[in-house]
Design the sequence.
């Protein structure tokens, strides 16, 4: 399993941290976890053609995690040298069907003409993608936001999306080889719908993850020694991701 952090940031882009998007490649088959603005440009920079995508997993429906979906659907039908015919599957929490229907209503010209969109609603569910076992669990960032656990025969990747301390990340990420986790704020910052350095460290420690990859840091978290703050609670390997960070699992 190959993983590329296409977008490591928040809705407030910085030079090295664009809005959310994670590329996973399993035996030559790419798919996306979230598709924030600019994801498709960074996908091209990673050497992956948009028409190779068959699955998109959305953690929640906020714009910094979804805006490039409209562009992707547009180019599926309006690329001058190809027309999509394979189904495209979009997976997300409760409301995914309404979200897609409203998007197509807002932009009727992106309505599929030559292919079908498959919409799959998940919460605490299990399914497969390209031979990988995928589980979802609520994160409490929004009422229906979910995190994803992706497993092959012997490795486990977990992506938090946006999360709150009261979510179910600990159970989902138990003994994960890699946890890609949001850390919106520095230690001591109070938030009911995001994680800070303390809550991230506690979750990673309780889940006993092997590698903690930090994403989705708002500006206040980028100006402190975030790794030092997280290490007050978690002693494993910590990676502060930037756009383009590449891993193999």
Sequence:
């Amino acid at each position: 399993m190959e993983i590329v952090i296409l977008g490591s940031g928040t809705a407030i882009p910085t030079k090295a941290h664009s809005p959310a998007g994670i590329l996973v490649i399993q035996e030559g088959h790419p798919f996306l976890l979230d598709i924030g603005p600019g994801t498709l440009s960074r996908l091209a920079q990673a050497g992956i053609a948009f028409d190779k995508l068959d699955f998109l997993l959305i953690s929640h429906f906020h714009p910094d995690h979804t805006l490039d979906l409209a562009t992707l659907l547009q180019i599926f039908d309006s690329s001058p040298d190809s027309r999509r015919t394979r189904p495209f599957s979009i997976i997300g929490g409760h409301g995914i069907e309404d979200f897609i229907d409203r998007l197509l209503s807002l932009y009727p010209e992106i309505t599929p003409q030559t292919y079908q969109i498959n919409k799959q609603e998940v919460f605490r569910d299990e399914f497969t993608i390209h031979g990988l076992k995928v589980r979802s669990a609520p994160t409490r960032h929004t009422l229906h936001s979910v995190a994803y656990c992706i497993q092959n025969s012997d490795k486990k990747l977990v992506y938090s999306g946006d999360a709150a301390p009261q979510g179910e990340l600990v159970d989902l990420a138990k003994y994960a080889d890699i946890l890609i986790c949001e850390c919106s704020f520095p230690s001591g910052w109070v938030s009911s719908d995001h994680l800070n350095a303390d809550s991230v460290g506690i979750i990673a420690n309780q889940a006993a993850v092997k590698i903690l990859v930090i994403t989705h840091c708002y500006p206040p978290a980028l100006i402190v020694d975030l790794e030092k703050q997280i290490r007050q609670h978690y002693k494993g390997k910590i990676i502060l991701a930037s756009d383009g960070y590449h891993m193999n699992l």
The chain has one domain: 2-241. The helical segments are 39-45, 63-66, 68-78, 96-106, 169-172, 197-207, 219-222, 226-230.
